[in-house]
Amino acid sequence: MGTSSLYDWSTTAANNASITGSSINWSENQAPSTINNSAREEMREVALWRDLLGGAKIATGTNTLTLTTGLALAAYSQNMMFAFENTTQNTGAVTINVDSIGAKDIKKFHDQALASGDLEAAGIYLIAYEATAGNFQLLSPVSSGSIASVVADSSPQLGGQLDVNGNALGDGTLELLKFSETGSAVNEFTIANAASGAGPTLSATGTDSNVDINISAKGTGVVAVSSSMNPSIASTFKALIFGF
Question: 180 in helix, strand or coil?
Answer without folding.
Answer: coil
